Amino acid sequence: MKYCFGIDIGGTTVKMGLFQEDGELLDKWEIKTRTENQGEAILPDIAQAVKAKMAEKKLVKEQIIGLGMGLPAPVTEDGIVQNTANLGWGYKEVTRELEELLDGMKVIPGNDANVAALGEMWKGGGKGHKNVIMVTLGTGVGGGIIVDGKCLVGAHGAGGEIGHLCVNYQETEICGCGKKGCLEQYASATGITRLANMRLAKDEKPSTLRNVAEMSAKEVFDAVKAGDEVAIEIATEFGKYLGHALANLAAACDPAVIVIGGGVSKAGEVLLDYIKGPFKEMAFFADKDTEFALAELANDAGICGAAKLVLK
Amino acid sequence: MKYCFGIDIGGTTVKMGLFQEDGELLDKWEIKTRTENQGEAILPDIAQAVKAKMAEKKLVKEQIIGLGMGLPAPVTEDGIVQNTANLGWGYKEVTRELEELLDGMKVIPGNDANVAALGEMWKGGGKGHKNVIMVTLGTGVGGGIIVDGKCLVGAHGAGGEIGHLCVNYQETEICGCGKKGCLEQYASATGITRLANMRLAKDEKPSTLRNVAEMSAKEVFDAVKAGDEVAIEIATEFGKYLGHALANLAAACDPAVIVIGGGVSKAGEVLLDYIKGPFKEMAFFADKDTEFALAELANDAGICGAAKLVLK
């Protein structure tokens, strides 16, 4: 039996998993992400954790197929990162540096959103399919596109930046990226909160949402489930923007299934109900029957997808 | 030396090419596409033409790597076509049927727009790159997306349907596909003519376009080159829709280069001038420096890309 490691580097913790070559997750654990001094300790810490786990499990280098890794930044196929928002790294040759620290063990890095999509294709909401779009509705909107079983990495390592598709050419407010009308402005947790506050300010229509201490996507979808009419209007607007964006993406990428993940997806199946209608209305005929699924792996999507990078 | 065939099936003619394995095109010719009787003669005609060429060039089966083929329909990776608009075929197992007719020679089919994009990546406007988007501005708007050197085929063989991205959610006229606001309504030859007629009807502003016998994309861009202000307004509107659509596509697919082909592209570099500005305005930051190029292979893109399907 051979083994591999799946690593998911976040701004706070590095999640790590040891997998058998047949895909079984044997062990998972976390270490702290030490971002100080331009994040110089991050890769050495990972290398040390990998070596310690190998010693603990009495594994030798020859038994390790390699180490896959998701990073919160665009990363090219040859393992170059130009910049990171959360790790402290500027230009960094991730593959070369970590392979040296691991005495030549094979390292394959990828963008974290793309890698999570690969994980969901392998073991989660996209299981059984080779063409998958995953959209992650969190503080922002992230995404990953899987084409024929592999991550769409792109020329600059920036494939799958679904959150920055323009869905409203009339928007006047500016997105965090500097553009206007990005999907992220309507479909992220922050975006849903923004839609909710705008709707409530529009008129005096009664709504339980007027009583919440702090507006959030969760409050909106809880109110939707309770039948609140204003909340339903907000969810309808959210679903229109997201459904239309996904229809455009499907015309380009023709997925078998679209997987919805991230914190907002905890609302459950009701979320999909609001997305499917507008998707179908705007989809190219060949894509109208594209399936929708909720993500299933939660925080394990990253380590699973990372392992899949090396298991192929 | 080994050889392969690249075949491009159109509604009127089948274009055929014989290539060396190093990519050199040795010979090209055409046969008629016989679409009568549900197109039952098309594949046998192709098989006969291939065998005749092999006899003429004294080639034996063992010297042929295979036969790649572009079709005007979505086609899945396993060679299934569900329907064609122009060939008379309904459900057809293209790979199996043609491999039988060719005594087991390897056949790899693909959608014609995707295959043309692969050709342009290999030998044309996208040469030297592995991530390419090609958009073909003809009667309609077609497209092909090349990811890491391979066609994005998709789950239903319908990847790269760029013409049916929605670029105007306020549109009231219906596209040929049944939706409203598709890129094809603004950026095809027909779409540019429509924009021109709408602009001319809006007011009485003088323009040389008011004197043309039959409005066309060529007339519009000829007038642009002559400095006609109304024509420049029309080209600006065309460029805004196409540039914005390509910016959305680039956020998803992160190409190194976007290749513009089809009849409209005969207008030349001036066309790119109108696309680049709106693209850059709407592009995600990682994609702002994406290159633009005109297609270079004209009618040979299909046979070249088809050959590349088998040469890998």
For the termini of chain A, the CA-CA separation is 16 Å
Counting copies of identical and different chains, the oligomeric state is homodimer
Output the helix-strand order of chain A. EEEHHEEEHEHEEEHHHHEHEH
Order of strands across the widest beta sheet of chain A?
Answer: 3-2-1-4-7
CATH architectural arrangement of the largest domain in chain A = 2-Layer Sandwich
What structural class results from the helix and strand content of chain A?
A: alpha/beta
What is the helix content of chain A?
25-40%
Q: On the 0-100 scale, what is the average pLDDT of chain A?
A: 96
Biggest interface: A-B, 44 and 45 residues
The name of the CATH superfamily of the largest domain in chain A reads ATPase, nucleotide binding domain
Supply the number of structural domains of chain A: 2
What would you report as the Rg of chain A, rounded to the nearest angstrom? 20 Å
User: How much strand of chain A?
Assistant: 15-25%
Q: What coarse outline of chain A follows from CA principal-axis ratios?
A: elongated
Stretches with pLDDT under 50, minimum 5 residues of chain A: none
The number of helices of chain A is 10
The largest pleated sheet of chain A is described as: 5 strands, mixed
**The CATH topology of the largest domain in chain A:** Nucleotidyltransferase, domain 5
CATH class of the largest domain in chain A: Alpha Beta
- The count of strands of chain A amounts to 12
